[in-house]
Amino acid sequence: MATSATTTNHATAGRIQTAGPRRKARLHGRWHTPYVFLLPALVLLAVFFIWPAVTAVQLAFFDYHVVSPPTWVGLDNFKRLLGDPRFFTALKNSGLFMVGMVPLLVGLPLLLALLVNLPLRAIKVFRLLYYLPVVTSMVVVAIAWNYVFHQRGVLNWALTSVGLFDKPVQFLLDTGWALPALVLVEVWKSAGYYMMIYLAGLQSIPTSLYEAARVDGASSWQRLSHITIPLLRPYLAVVVVLATMDSVQVFTSVFVMTQGGPQDHTMTLGYYIYDKAFREFDVGYANAIGLVLWAILIVFSLVSYRITRGKVTVP
User: Which residues are listed as membrane-spanning (predicted)?
Assistant: First the structure.
């Protein structure tokens, strides 16, 4: 019996040892399989991102007006920027969008996330309602807000009814109101997206921390400031970076609602690039502006990330 068992064990061990090299050989023969599945995505990335990006960088150093062949001009397009007052107007307006949008897109979504994270009945309905503008086309949103801001729209009716305004205001034609109006539209459209980022962070915080804080007699404000906010810091960094990028790239709302007016008061860098490329057909100069915008995005994103990042500690 012992001899039979020993023989069986040796045979089993032999099969296992034989199966190991065979399995490795089969796996080695299929080493290319993951790359085959990645190939379509890599092709799409190359066609729709890498190739256009490389072409845009090249055209920034050419004088190219579509109907004529491109001519090498070196850094002349970038020198033109220094003497272009409309470029600096667009740069200033993009900065104003950033100043107006980023604080609102950092603070308001956090408040909404705290509210929709409460254990209340039908709270998922409110999450859906707050997120609905995010999945709505920006063109549709801009057209709808055009009616809201109209001289005979609901906003003017409400403001004149309560006595805040003596007469209706043409918000989108007023140099003082046009840009704040677009900031409001952009924040309304994007707040739900950043709310979901915060909500993911809130739901990842262990409830045991809050229970321990309650036992120690911590108030709601103390739990928020000493537990919630510190543990949300990585999510805050993401929100700040994304909000900064969104604010500098504002285009669709400007295109649909104001066309850069009145008197260039809402013309952003994104809209100025469009204006140069598709209205004046100055493609080389437009790509030079695009490179500057790209550099601005990288700088502000890195600065925002370095300011908001940090080691998470709970006092």
Answer: 32-54, 95-116, 128-149, 169-188, 235-257, 285-305
Residue 11 placed within a domain: no
Q: What integer pLDDT is reported at residue 311 of this predicted model?
A: 52
Contact 252, 139 (CB under 8 A): yes
Q: How many domains does the chain have?
A: 1
Which has more confidence, 115 or 307?
115
Cα separation, 204 vs 222, whole angstroms: 19
CATH number at residue 265: 1.10.3720.10
| pTM listed for this prediction | 0.83
CA 132 to chain centre: 16
Question: Which residues, other chains included, contact 210 with Cβ-Cβ below 8 Å and sequence gap of 6+?
Answer: 223, 227
- The answer to the question of residue 104 being in a domain is yes
Domain range for 199? 86-281+293-310
263 CA to centre of own chain? 28
- Structure-derived torsion over alpha carbons of residues 37, 38, 43, 46, reported in degrees to the nearest 10: 180
CA dihedral sign, ordered 240, 241, 245, 246: negative
> pLDDT at position 108, please?
96
What value does the mean pLDDT of the chain take?
Answer: 87
